[in-house]
């Protein structure tokens, strides 16, 4: 029987040979062994149980075949919580954690006196944004929408697992909210923003839902549609928050001026110094 060290080293060598992320071997092993990362190093010289070795090798084979490690594990950690993910939802990214964090800062800045705050998350996917905000800020009443019924199944399961109070609605972009004449204080969306002809990593393109990735010829199709239709949903004072492509500042500024005129806005850089978050201040500044 192989030791933990031997099994992981063999996988790391193969990953390296195939120019894939060598960290995946350790991530998959401590997931299957139900260990924390620091515990893994204490068991490196232990022999691996036969069933665990089989499960590990099967999982690694899936990864070699191009399946993301998050789908193999069945979850991704977001804001310190585990969210179920599968091929029906986009895998939550750390950039989106920064969006959530910045929304929470602005709630403190602009809505500190509100006993209750109405928020919607359009295109919720796994529910990571909506659920995290609902759990982090108890004053929020959260509605989340998605055009994909399959995505909503995942989002509802995540809300139940994490005991978050979120109302989910099925429909295209703003329509479920417009149909019920909803009014919100905070509008949030992480719409698809990759241009249709942009080359992206094969593991992403071949596995994650295209409806959550691609945003028209220049990537801004869904933003323009939202900008055009969103005002009837907004309360007198409202914050609009979006994730965006790092190379879309110029196009985004043009679209904002077209639909929002002189309303103040900010494009915020992420921790890597890339333009990644957009905030529009509707009668807030």
Distance between the termini: 66 Å
| Average pLDDT, all residues | 88
**H/I helix tally:** 12
CATH architecture of the largest domain: 3-Layer(aba) Sandwich
Total beta strand runs? 9
Q: Could you tell me the CATH topology label of the largest domain.
A: Rossmann fold
Low-pLDDT windows of residues: 198-216
Q: How many structural domains?
A: 2
Spatial shape: elongated
**CATH superfamily membership of the largest domain:** Vaccinia Virus protein VP39
Q: Round the Cα radius of gyration to an integer and report it.
A: 21 Å
What is the helix content?
Answer: 40-55%
Sketch the major β-sheet.
7 strands, mixed
Strand order of the largest sheet: 5-4-3-6-7-9-8
Q: What's the CATH class label of the largest domain?
A: Alpha Beta
H and E order: HHHHHEEHEHEHEHEHHEHEE
Q: Which band does the percent of strand residues land in?
A: 15-25%
SSE-based structural type: alpha/beta
Describe what this molecule looks like in 3D:
The protein is an alpha/beta fold. The protein contains twelve helices and nine strands. The protein has helices at 4-17, 23-32, 37-40, 50-64, 69-73, 94-110, 128-136, 149-162, 175-179, 202-205, 221-229, 249-260; strands at residues 75-78, 81-84, 117-122, 140-146, 166-170, 184-189, 234-243, 265-269, 275-282. Strand 3 (117-122), helix 7 and strand 4 form a beta-alpha-beta unit. Helix 1 packs antiparallel against helix 2 and helix 11 (221-229) packs parallel to helix 12 (249-260). The protein is elongated. The model is unreliable at 198-216 (pLDDT under 50).
